[in-house]
Write a structure and sequence with these properties.
Helices cover 41% and strands 15% of the residues. It is α/β, with parallel strands linked by helices. A seven-stranded parallel β-sheet has the order 3-2-1-4-5-6-7, sandwiched between helices. It starts with a strand and ends in a 5-residue tail after the last helix.
Amino acid sequence: MKPNILITGATSGIGAALAARYAGRAELLLAGRMPELEAMPILPANAHYVVADQSAPEVAASNIMAALDLLGWESLDLAVLNAGSGWSGDPASEPAGSIRNTLEANLVAAIALAYGLSPLLSGGRLVLIGSTARRGAPLFASYAAAKAGLDGLARSLAEEWRGRTKVQVIHPGPVRTDIHAKAGFDPGRARRFFTSPETMARLLERALASRRSRRTISFPRYLAAAVTPWLR
């Protein structure tokens, strides 16, 4: 029997690449903010899709839970909470609405969804996709704060759910996705050092298989100066 897998942020970047890797080997429920008619042509055939904008945490969690119920899934083998967004600039200049949106999309939505999924994850795994930005990233203060919070959430849930649900947090280094452009940041020549979404998805799948509670997937330290800020 194929495992049941949920992936959020699945319409682009790491999420889409990870969904492509699991296609054919799992029953997939993919979530994203893109309207269904626009999303389905770019997603794996036979994958199920639900519109769930993580910047509205309660609505996103409710939509995903309703989709799981409609599918009749009584359990989840793996939930990968990957969705995220960011804003780039002087922290003192970031509008309050942007700060709230960044925290809600990257942290609050993960908390709400993790709690909602808890009954379905007995014997399964919850994987939170963080970022090496959690250690601090110039021009991405609120994003870094949200990812640091996500790391703390993973640690707490790993203790709370010990013996029932495996909890992992994986922190990718910079990846060539559209999150930089959406955040208003141009990495310039450093972008050539960023990992492709396909390569990162392969590394993520390997990290998932290792079952280590915390894992960072990044470049050697000597490249750090070239690729900061560490935004996936």
